TrEMBL record, chain A:
Gene Ontology CC annotation, any one: plasma membrane
UniProt subcellular location: Membrane
Gene: calhm3
Transmembrane segments: 21-39, 51-70, 106-130, 182-201
Annotated organism of origin: Danio rerio
Protein name as it appears in the record: Calcium homeostasis modulator 3
Coiled coil stretches, renumbered: none
GO BP terms, alphabetized: ATP export
Lineage: Eukaryota, Metazoa, Chordata, Craniata, Vertebrata
UniProtKB/TrEMBL annotation, chain B:
Classification via InterPro entries: CALHM
Compartments where located: Membrane
Transmembrane stretches, start-end: 21-37, 49-70, 185-204
GO biological process, one term: ATP export
Highest taxon in the source lineage: Eukaryota
Species annotation: Danio rerio (Zebrafish)
Major site of localization recorded for this protein: membrane
Keyword vocabulary terms for this entry: Ion channel, Ion transport, Membrane, Transmembrane, Transmembrane helix, Transport
One Pfam family in the UniProt entry: Ca_hom_mod
Cellular-component GO terms for this entry: plasma membrane
Name recorded for this polypeptide: Calcium homeostasis modulator protein 1
Gene Ontology molecular function: any one: monoatomic cation channel activity
Annotated membrane topology: Multi-pass membrane protein
Family: Belongs to the CALHM family.
């Protein structure tokens, strides 16, 4: 149990690592989805390209939207963007930072899908087999009487009758797949290069501002999480007290029969909860107070100044000897 | 503080992750059910379409309803919807939120089934094989020499590999490929649409109703927590009731003999008895307990807590004016007044307490709290005003309480 707590604490303390984890899971889902999807080229001239391009680009859009959806930072970003000013000024740099980090993570799964389709080659073969000039390949099945376009459109379909024992189909497939893989590897190389360059030269630009925006974006994330947790705890204490209060309102009458002790004896159940729970309720004990609190949290976020809480004045004593030299000091 | 953080995280994440877990399990069950289900197209013109489409549509409905059945929050929603207003007004936004969140979770398994069915293509093939356009696929154009009926019958056999006999008319593979391609296109389109809808709902929502959303989220979580707390309290009360009842029974049976031997272990016993009796929270009879449970549904208490230590006073002090009642609460039980006057005499006494308690007046003045969302000042001033007429034994505490409320 302790180890679990430790692990949980580690992940919770670093919201970035959670986002990274989710991002990786989404990429793995993307890979699994591709491998389990049964690619089914129609092998008809008018539909091939549409189908192949659809399969190459529609799932990435879906994965991108999913990536944005499951990212915690989306909620933080939207809230920070649309909230009224309240007592706290808005910092557009923080919003931009959140947006860019969210998009970077959300773009990983779509890129994985696109690269997989390119490296596998089936989509390209389906889409572009008709654009291949059959002159360069021997063994084209002329005897079927179909137009050339239709023949070329059937290349992706292995099991079709006209290509029984034909090396023509295999040759064309290999050729188109080779193109597809070349494009795939180039894109991969380009992306890695871009990422490396961006990482290396980023500190040259506005590093101090970057540190600030990163701090405040983490802060916003933490603040929202802590607010939600405090609300949860508060709801729990509110509920418990409300239920107890309800029971006690139903409490029956008792009349004094004989004096057992001189001091009045209050219900100890309340004593158990007393101070601690009162504190956890923070004085918010009514529905309208809770509503007002939640409304104000959104409409008028508090200023970023906790000096009053952090620096409570305390007496600092300095002991001096007869000549005025300090012997001991709290300062 | 860290302990509380962990507790809060586990609490919140437990509820949500439990529901998400069930949701995920149902989605996986849905996919597994599809793969293990043996799709069996009848290959007869009259039945193909119905079979194909019903395989696409009926299991999702079944999964959706199953999602509702497995979700604990459904009964909570129904309870909240159907309860009488009592001292706590109903907030339709909270009920809408609960309904929407339940529906969202229940919709995942059906969506998985539909998308897997469309991607696989068998049901589309079964349903639409007869609608194929001959000119596109037919080998011999229109020179097949079959009547319309026979043609339909042949086309209907396309999904069944082993009995298809129209190879000379139309290539089965080409037709299968074509229909599967359309089915997969529909599948991806379906996924795209639901993802866009989910994206609009979740990512764009903060632009619109964020403050209201925070409120409804809090109160729906509260309703859930309160229900669980009530159940826990009832269970504990039942346990204590049983213990005290049994003890009382034994004592009655053994009579005077028991009282002589009490001195030695009276301390321990007293402590235990005390704590058990305290757990009873003053509810000691069957009809009182029945009333507790009845009123919990018919007259839910207002969302307003008294300050600690004022439990005994609060009952006396909150005498409502007619104006308060008119504002939103209901007088739950007109007979309460009479019942409390009789007083129940029993052996367990809290000495020193409550000559005043016999004047219990149960009135639903807190209804105003439920009815007025956000009008806090009205309540505060009225409460401060209401304390004027208290009986004297608790004047010290009364003053402190009056001060507290007037600050609000």
């Amino acid at each position: 149990m302790d180890r679990l707590k430790l692990v949980l604490q580690y992940f919770q303390s670093n919201s970035e690592s959670i986002s990274n984890g989710i991002c990786i899971i989404l990429s793995l889902i993307s890979v699994k989805l591709y491998t389990s999807f049964d690619f089914n080229c129609p092998c008809l001239p008018q539909y091939n390209k549409m189908y192949a391009m659809g399969v190459m680009f529609v799932p990435p859009i879906i994965l991108l939207l999913l990536g944005v959806l499951v990212n915690r930072h989306t909620g933080v970003l939207m809230e920070e963007w649309v909230r009224p000013l309240g007592k706290r000024a808005k910092n557009p740099a923080v919003v931009k930072f959140l947006l860019s980090s969210m998009m970077q993570r959300a773009l990983l799964a779509p890129m994985v899908w696109i690269l997989m389709t390119l490296l596998d080659g089936k989509c390209f073969i389906c889409a572009f087999s008709m654009n291949v000039d059959p002159k360069y390949f021997t063994g084209i099945p002329n005897s079927t009487g179909l137009e050339l376009v239709k023949i070329m459109a059937k290349v992706p379909c292995k099991e079709d009758v006209i290509f029984r024992n034909s090396s023509f189909r295999k040759a064309v497939s290999r050729y188109v797949r080779c193109y597809s893989q070349a494009i795939g590897w180039s894109i991969l190389l380009f992306l890695i290069f871009l990422g490396a360059v961006a990482r290396v030269i980023k500190p040259c630009f506005n590093h101090a501002t970057f540190l600030q925006t990163r701090y405040w974006s983490n802060y916003l994330d933490m603040e929202q999480k802590l607010f939600d947790e405090t609300c949860v705890l508060h709801a729990r204490d509110f509920a418990r007290k409300s239920v107890l209060q309800f029971f006690e309102n139903m409490r029956e009458n008792v009349t004094v029969r004989m004096p057992l002790s001189s001091a009045p004896r209050y219900s100890t159940v309340q004593n158990e909860f007393g101070e601690e729970e009162e504190e956890r309720l923070h004085g918010i004990t009514r529905q309208d107070q809770v509503d007002h609190l939640l409304q104000t949290w959104y409409e008028c976020k508090p200023e970023l100044d906790v000096t009053k809480m952090a620096y409570k004045p305390k007496a600092c004593i300095t002991w001096e000897d007869h000549s005025g030299r300090p012997l001991f000091s709290d300062v | 503080m860290d302990k509380f953080r962990m507790m809060a995280q586990i609490l919140q994440s437990n509820q949500e992750s439990f529901m998400n877990g069930i949701c995920g399990i149902m989605a996986l069950a849905s996919a597994q059910l599809y793969t293990s289900f043996e799709f069996n197209c009848p290959c007869i013109p009259e039945y193909n379409y119905s079979y194909g489409i019903s395989m696409l549509v009926i299991p999702p409905i079944w999964f959706f309803l199953l999602g509702f059945v497995l979700n604990n929050n459904v009964s909570m929603l129904a309870e909240e919807w159907k309860r009488p207003i009592g001292q706590r007004s109903k907030d339709p936004a909270v009920m809408r939120y609960m309904c929407v969140s339940i529906s969202q979770r229940s919709l995942i398994a059906p969506a998985v089934w539909i998308s897997v069915t469309l991607m696989d293509g068998k049901s589309f093939l079964c349903a639409y094989s007869m609608d194929l356009d001959m000119s596109e696929f037919g080998r011999n154009g229109s020179g097949h020499g079959l009547s319309q009926e026979e043609l339909l019958r042949t086309l209907a056999k396309i999904p069944c590999k082993h009995i298809y006999d129209g190879q000379h008319i139309m290539s089965r593979e080409a037709a299968t490929r074509y229909i599967r391609c359309i089915s997969q296109a529909f599948g991806w389109l379906f996924l795209l649409i639901i993802t866009i809808v989910a994206f609009l709902i979740r990512a764009i929502r903060p632009c619109f109703t964020q403050a209201v959303f925070l409120k409804t989220k809090y109160w729906s979580h509260y309703v859930d927590t309160e229900r669980r707390m009530f159940d826990e309290t009832c269970t504990e009360h039942a346990k204590s009731f049983a213990k005290v009842c049994i003890k009382q029974y034994f004592e009655d049976i053994s009579g005077e003999i028991q009282s002589c031997h009490d001195h030695d272990d009276s301390d321990d016993e007293d402590d235990k008895t005390d704590s058990e009796e305290d757990k009873l929270l003053g509810i000691r009879r069957q009809d009182t307990m029945n009333k507790v449970l009845w009123d919990w549904h018919t007259c839910k208490p207002a969302l307003s807590l008294r300050k600690y230590g004022d439990a005994t006073i609060a009952k006396n002090s909150e005498s409502s004016t007619n104006a308060n009642n008119a504002q939103g609460g209901h007088d739950c039980d007109n007979n309460e007044h009479n019942v409390s006057q009789h007083g129940f005499k029993n052996g367990y006494v809290n000495a020193g307490l409550d000559v005043g308690q016999s004047e219990l007046e149960k009135q639903c003045d807190n209804g105003q709290n439920g009815g007025l969302n956000g009008h806090g000042n009205v309540n505060g001033s009225q409460k401060g005003f209401l304390n004027g007429g208290l009986p004297s034994p608790y004047s010290g505490q009364k003053k402190a309480w009056a001060v507290y409320y007037s600050k609000v």
